[in-house]
Amino acid sequence: MNTIPTKINRYNVYNKGNRLLGVGEEMTLPDFEPSSETVTGAGILGEIDDPTVGYFGNQELEIPFRLLDKETADMMDMTKAVQLEIRGAQQTTNTEGDIEFRPMRVVVRGRGGKLTTGKVKAGSPMDTAITLTILYILIEVDGKTVVEKHYREYARDIRKMVTYLKNEVPDLKGRSVVLLSRNCYEFCVASYGIILAGGVLVTLNQKKTWDELEYELGQVEPALILNDGIDYGCRAQLEAAYGPLLRPMDCYKDSTPGELTNCVDHDGLMMLMFTSGTTGRSKGVMLSERNMCSTLVTYSEVAENWITNRLPAGQKLPLSHMTLLPLFHMACFVCVMSYPPAGWALNLCGDIRDFYRDLGLMHSDVMASAPMLVETIYNDYKRGRVERLNGLWDLCCSSAALDPKMLEELAANGFVVNQCYGMTETFGDGILNFTQTADHMSAVGKPDDHCEYQVDETGEICIRGNSVMLGYYKDPEATAEVIDKDGWFHTGDLGRIDEDGYYYITGRKKNLIILANGENVSPEELEHKLAACPAVQECIVKEKSQKICAVVYCAEDKQQQVRDFITEANRTLPLYKRISAVEFTAEPLPRNALGKLLRKEGRNLDAAKIKQL
């Protein structure tokens, strides 16, 4: 039997397993003889590797932590049996000397205990300890590990991947290699390896339907598909259609490191990344080495320097980045390419459901954040649970607009907020906004001189420069629609420029509703007004029979509140902008992997799911 853990590190304490009480750094576990050597089954943290159960008569256990939820602590009756669940990690060192953290869970039941509280400091959590006479204790150590990889090993593995790919596909130059995987170390290795071997890197969303994946795979005609082997819903179809091309993500592990030669054409096709397809079939965005390098210069010379010049007191370099958003999306993929040259650590999280667990195991300074993540962190701040973020202090926001008042409050309370207006078609490059005060927090930013920007005569934001894509794959017509003869990329976003040179998004050009009288209505403007109604959980505005119609997701008992709010809002609007029809949906509106609203699907909700006013 393996050694029973003596300590648990970086842990959260839950009352009865469901209400977070607080967090702690290290706790010593009791010395005891287990009642059984093995227990089979699945635990909360996954497959159980070393489960240990013991029964005790008079042994005590002290559980120190920083109290986050005083209300919950007050509810605990210390005269009765108390059950606490502690989730954290066991720190070990492997045979190569690397530090590993093995996810770990301890369930302890005891009685006759005492709750000790320390001094209260304004704005700070209270140091607390619970001492229990143990009746029962369960220790589970997950077989999965958090492993630290050094850049020396990373470079060696990339060279191994180059060797493997060239041996498997001798004529790899210019051919596509697809990655179908959740976030993992091997994804990063493969990304560099494919490019340096002369292949075309293709990142796909492994959680799409088979109809969507089949279309995208058919477009790129892969030479190989590297995948993590997990069934996301269409494994059988994938194996039937592409079985001989499938390889595991760690396929390179037995190869010898190869020599690197410059086989990348600076302006040739280096990478294909598919757009989210919010209004139809996704399009393959063709990206070159020039596109990537121009973006990385911007991130390293502007964004990284700005962040490192605003370190919190006591913070040292290098920094670490929580890589949680999917790597098949540019908002996170660009971090894999830009932060390693600065020596930053990339903390990889493979499943958003493990966010708090992994954040507790791996301290992170910075995180690329989609709106849903920023809102989650904001809620933690509002509920006094900042400790569970384990020192996270910088939020790099992108992918969609955010509530400026929420960002202002975060910036005023210890967080650093920076926003990036970019897109797949510009390798994530665009306008950066480092404002930390209310005056320009709702702007997307102020352009610098690394690219040219303009708002054209139709009000559309346009970009010209080295970061603009080569075009859409196998779709010259779609390319011509967005890149004009002078090289301007038309983003599809409508915007305005204020007197200080800051750009603001006012809507999407394709979303404009054009009424029979020739008036143009921006649905985003009306959606912003509806979002002010507390009862509205989600909404979109659409045209229906030449009328302005709102589709609203809310609780059934709140529908009248929404109707009344719309009646009052209409009084503040011109006649042509007034909402004259409302539909209520019984389920949330459809969104993509990053939480962006899928307008086409939202506008065409099944009649059975809506109730018309």
Extended strand count: 33
Radius of gyration: 27 Å
Strand content: 25-35%
> Helical percent range?
10-25%
- Decide which structural class fits the backbone: alpha/beta
The helix count comes to 14
Intertermini distance? 66 Å
Query: What's the overall average pLDDT, rounded?
Result: 82
Note the main sheet: 7 strands, mixed
Strand order of the largest sheet: 14-13-11-12-15-16-25
What overall form do the CA principal axes indicate?
globular
Low-pLDDT segments, ≥5 res: 34-57, 120-124
Please characterize this protein's 3D structure:
This protein has 613 residues and is α/β, with parallel strands linked by helices. The chain is 23% helix and 31% strand. It contains 14 helices and 33 strands. The strands form seven sheets. The protein has a seven-stranded mixed β-sheet, sandwiched between helices. Strand 8 (99-117) and strand 9 form a beta hairpin. Helix 2 (151-168) packs across helix 3 (185-196). The termini are far apart.
